[in-house]
Amino acid sequence: KNEVEQSPQNLTAQEGEFITINCSYSVGISALHWLQQHPGGGIVSLFMLSSGKKKHGRLIATINIQEKHSSLHITASHPRDSAVYICAVPLVDKLIFGTGTLLAVQP
Amino acid sequence: EAGVTQSPTHLIKTRGQQATLRCSPISGHTSVYWYQQALGLGLQFLLWYDEGEERNRGNFPPRFSGRQFPNYSSELNVNALELEDSALYLCASSLQRANYGYTFGSGTRLTVV
Question: What's the pLDDT tens digit per position in A55-107?
């Protein structure tokens, strides 16, 4: 079992839909990262959060430390949101990455 | 404030050659991490440098090595390139350890032909 699990692995949505991506982890953490990677592109850090909720534009990230679970929400999804979304958990000396969620938003 | 910068953006090398990838961390960050993302695979931890020292390395052969300079920038060297070394190499920096202010570069895409 992976230390960081994401679901779903693949997600197809229609433009305008509300999207949720989930991340569960088994290792103890002080913060969790959400990252975005467009096809063939580099990685962009979306959020780092250690408690509660953060919002940036149409993106919302929540974390429940007790349940070791985080969610990334996208409101009013748009085709430009199509990308791989990755959660990552920091250990002392490295990040442990989830396997990613491939999101395709169709117009 | 400048982010983590990596160079080159793309690199094409022939099998057996050596590749050198560079990373400049955010000002004030002393830790630099290298990750590999091979095609179809997730990100794998390669190396961690802090204060000029190699602190940890992932499960990669000794062909993968690097160093960190006094200004905290870092080089990743891959010797005797193999086709399967083709990947996106990602650098990230943080204040001390991965728990703090982890910032990513945009990566170097290495293609071995």
Answer: 999 999 999 988 999 999 999 999 999 999 999 988 777 888 998 999 999 99
Q: From the list A40, A42, A91, which residue is nearest B98 (CB)?
A: A91
DSSP-derived pairing of the beta strands A83-90 and A69-74: unpaired
How far, in Å, are A28, A33, A98 from residue A72 at the CA level?
Answer: 19, 10, 13
| Strand, helix or coil for residue B8 | coil
What's the pLDDT tens digit per position in B27-65? Answer: 989 999 999 999 878 889 999 999 999 999 999 999 999
Residues of A in contact with B86 (CB under 8 A): none
The Cα–Cα gap between B107 and B113 comes to 19
- B102/A95 touch (CB, cutoff 8 Å), yes or no: yes
